[in-house]
Predict the 3D structure of the following.
Amino acid sequence: MSEERRLPSEDRRLEVLRAIVEDYVETQEPVGSRALVERHQLGVSPATIRNDMAVLEEEGLIAQPHTSAGRVPTDKGYRLFVDRLSQVKALTSPERRAIETFLAGAVDVDDVVQRSVKVLAQLTNQVAIVQYPSLTRSTVRHVEVVALEGARVLVVVITSSGRVEQRIVELESTPSDGLLSDVRSRLMTAAVGQRLPEASLRLADVIGTFAPADRPLVTSVVTTLTHVFSDERSDERVAVGGTANLARFGRDFDTSIRPVLEALEEQVVLLKLLGEATTDPTVRIGLETGTEGLPGTAVVSSAYGSSEQALAMLGTLGPTRMDYPGTMAAVGAVARYVGRQLADG
Amino acid sequence: MSEERRLPSEDRRLEVLRAIVEDYVETQEPVGSRALVERHQLGVSPATIRNDMAVLEEEGLIAQPHTSAGRVPTDKGYRLFVDRLSQVKALTSPERRAIETFLAGAVDVDDVVQRSVKVLAQLTNQVAIVQYPSLTRSTVRHVEVVALEGARVLVVVITSSGRVEQRIVELESTPSDGLLSDVRSRLMTAAVGQRLPEASLRLADVIGTFAPADRPLVTSVVTTLTHVFSDERSDERVAVGGTANLARFGRDFDTSIRPVLEALEEQVVLLKLLGEATTDPTVRIGLETGTEGLPGTAVVSSAYGSSEQALAMLGTLGPTRMDYPGTMAAVGAVARYVGRQLADG
DNA sequence: ACTGGCACTTGCGCCTGGCGAGTGCCAAAG
DNA sequence: CTTTGGCACTCGCCAGGCGCAAGTGCCAGT
């Protein structure tokens, strides 16, 4: 209970916890005191370990599935392990190169996202979740207004992350080419380089700079643009992959795998799982995911984007019994590469 | 063996097969002779049914999992059932309305596809697969060429199915507005209304109609368009949903569910599963799916599109032990509505 | 051609006992 | 006070045995 002064025995107890987590992650089976001293150089006898285990269990860090079984880490135990007993382990250089070359082959934003999901799933052997770059967090790179046949006009926006969004607007009358190019250039000046929410405000001001006769047209175009800028649907797009890795969960489909599959089909749940933007990989274990009905699962997530501005989230979902250091490394690495990839276009 | 003259007993045997399929689909358990006469008005005793069953088994239409169990239809049995013993059953009008209203809310092509997957999965309680409208099978509705900053040009294509594809082209020099609009109008005339493969040919001819000095520019644009028109990647896009319904498969994750999940992540496999374009819902059972490693699964698929031109495929994947008439009805209905939806845009 | 009867097969659920892994406690030693 | 060996105890797991129930195939009779 006295957390301030670290007793020698306290040190070993934590070492025991680490050993339990590592062994359990590897073997997927409750780990007993004998196996522990055999696999690790702890320098003490099983009996001593048992005493330590009793304390760890009292503190709620480990538990036994049933009386005559070994110990298993609790969510609280994993938490402590992640916070104080582990450090993100570096990826091997083949792994780094694999990520890099695989992502480099992407031809557009959709492709980047899809490839990220795949590479993340393969790297971690878990379910990978990647959110598409947020519209509201990127800036406007280009605005285009183009006459189609009749009174229809095509409005195109290109964002800093390389996404291209377009809408077709039905006008009341056919606009002249001169007016259109005028509209385009004034919209460009107002919006380019702005974040999307601010761009919406600037665009609203542009309407007033036109002659009253032209305002209906300009208003239609601006309204459309504003819709594009604040389209929540595209902000919520998420790609999922590696569902076959769910085998790593329990063997019982209905109680452990099915709810996960169901959750993975709900965008809302996915976004909640990814959580708040954080630069470094964040781990949320069990209830910390904020999602009920997914016991025994943990999420490792991170924001990706440029150094100044986070674009969106990505991460993995797996059993709490996972290789945290490795997963955090993979999530971090993929986030970095994806961010870099989307920084240029 | 004499297929020509239908004996009365032959009739009853088929009736028995139908009863077996229907009961097995409903109960998921091997069906015995006694249960059969109790649940259906067959007017004969269990012993007679047993004789019929023996014949059906000899013909390879049913089988028993083990000696003391009831009978289960074989793939061949399901095949016969689908071909000769069942007819597509009409959807209830609430179901029809559900499809219609749900699809009507879609705002663009992506949305239509996503909603179709969802509605199809819910309707059938199976895994739903919907291919995005094929580019190569649609026609060109509009071509746009727009100057961006510097020597960059945005090329936009809108297809008859409402898809909008765009590319950015880097030119060697900044083109004049006049030239660009000239290019645009000639490309439009050449391509609009054509199917994409033919449009590619027509566009190639357009290059020659320009002055030699302008040809490099026109060539760049045309090349880009040709790439867009024949982009296999977008032709192969597929959406999947309802994976949680895999519960209806076996209980054993590793042997029956995992391979399916793996297959569902491979675009190539998905496209193979959907099969060749057919207007009416087609059923492929077991090996007929042409995909190994998916025993016990059947696919119901159909093309969707306008009456003249199929746009792409959609369908469901489920255990061979499925409600074929209902599934075929659902697939057919969704295909019709989606086709209609994408016919206008 | 159909039926009732009967012997036979066999999977499944249930119980049982033995085995082994792992624990907790304790008394003794460092 | 910590560590250790010893020991009794608790359970989950597995194999074997048993009875049950379902369902079949065959045969003799109508």
User: Anything to note?
Assistant: Residues 9, 44-48, 51, 65-69 of chain A lie near DNA strand D (CB under 10 Å from a C1'). Residues 186 and 331 of chain A are 42 Å apart (CA to CA). The longest strand of chain A covers residues 310-319.
